[in-house]
Amino acid sequence: MDIVNIAAEAYASNFSFEEDDLLHEINQYTTATHDNAHMLSGHVQGSFLSLLSTLLQPSRILEIGTFTGYSALCLAKGLKPGGMLHTIELREPDAATAKSYFERSVYKNNIRLHLGDANEIIPTLNEQWDIVFIDADKTGYISYYDLILPAVKQNGVIIADNTLFHGQVLEENISGKNAKAVHAFNEHVKNDPGVQQVLLTVRDGLMLIRKL
C-alpha cells in the first residue's frame, strides 16, 4: 500500500533544506547499490531529524539501527559541543559502510558505532539520553523501548520509525509479522502513562514520544 503520495513527497523535498554533500552521497550510493535501500531515512525525513535535533541541542543521542549512516549524521547536526551519538548496527556490512562515511564527517569524533545486538549493548552504555531513534527490527521495538526508557531524561524524546509500516497497520486484519509488531508497539506507547506521543504521517510513519 502506498501511504505517501509520490508527487507530494517530491514537493516536500523541494521545499526542505538541502542535504549536505556527504548525505547526498550516502543517499545516492545506498539507493543505487543496496537491496534494502528503502530503509534509508531519505531527504525529507533526514531534514526533519536534523531540524529536531538542532532545536533540542542534545548532548547524548542513541540510535538503534545505523543502516548506512544517513540518519546518524542527520541527528549529529544538533549535538552540543562535546556531545556524543551512539549508534548500534547488527549487520557488519552496513556497519562498515556507515563507518566509512562517519570517518569522512566533521562529526567523526562525536559518533561511536557499536556492532552487535542492541539488547546486549544498550545496558553497557551507562548514559542518560536526550534523543533516542529506534529504527531496527520491528519485532524488537517494544523490547528496545522498555530497555531505554528508564535512561531517557525527563522531556527527552524517543523517535520510532516505520510506525505505519507500509500502510499494513491500517488493514482491518493485520497479518504480517512486522506490521503486527509495529501495531503492538504503537498500542504499548499509547497505553504508557509516563509519556506523551504523536504519530506523524511522515514517510513510513514517525512516532514522537516525550518522556514526562
Short characterization:
The protein has 212 residues and is an alpha/beta fold. It contains 8 helices and 7 strands.
Strand content: 15-25%
What integer value in Å does the Rg equal?
16 Å
Order of the strands making up the biggest sheet: 3-2-1-4-5-7-6
- Enumerate how many helices there are, as a single number: 8
List descriptors.
alpha/beta; 8 helices; Rossmann fold; globular; seven-stranded mixed sheet; 212 residues; 38% helix
What does this structure look like?
- The protein is α/β, with parallel strands linked by helices and 212 residues long.
- It has a single domain (6-211), classed as Rossmann fold.
- Helices cover 38% and strands 21% of the residues.
- The protein contains eight helices and seven strands.
- A seven-stranded mixed sheet has the order 3-2-1-4-5-7-6, with helices on both faces.
- A hairpin with a 5-residue loop joins strand 6 (195-200) and strand 7 (206-211).
- Helix 3 (42-56) runs parallel beside helix 4.
- The chain is globular.
